[in-house]
Design a protein that fits this description.
By secondary structure, the chain is mostly beta strands. The chain has a domain of about 30 residues. It is built from no helices and five strands. It has a three-stranded antiparallel β-sheet with strand order 3-4-5, with no helix packed on it. A hairpin with a 3-residue loop joins strand 3 and strand 4. The chain is globular, with a radius of gyration of 13 Å.
Length: about 55
């Protein structure tokens, strides 16, 4: 079995640990809310759940 349904084996990439505190490494989707991170592309950020796209310079 590949693991629990809905679990991401690479979730550690979404957070950074500094000392005894954690920070979010990626932006969360403004439409979906907590726990849904946006993917980083060359010129945009995209939500894989709802499809929201934010263009960056």
């Amino acid at each position: 079995m590949a693991g629990k349904k809905g679990s991401s084996p690479s979730v550690y990439k979404y957070y950074k640990v500094k000392g005894d505190k954690t920070e979010k490494a990626r932006k969360e989707c403004s439409r979906c809310g907590k726990g849904v991170f946006m993917s980083e592309h060359k010129d945009r950020r995209t939500c894989g759940k709802c499809g929201l796209t934010e263009f960056t310079k």
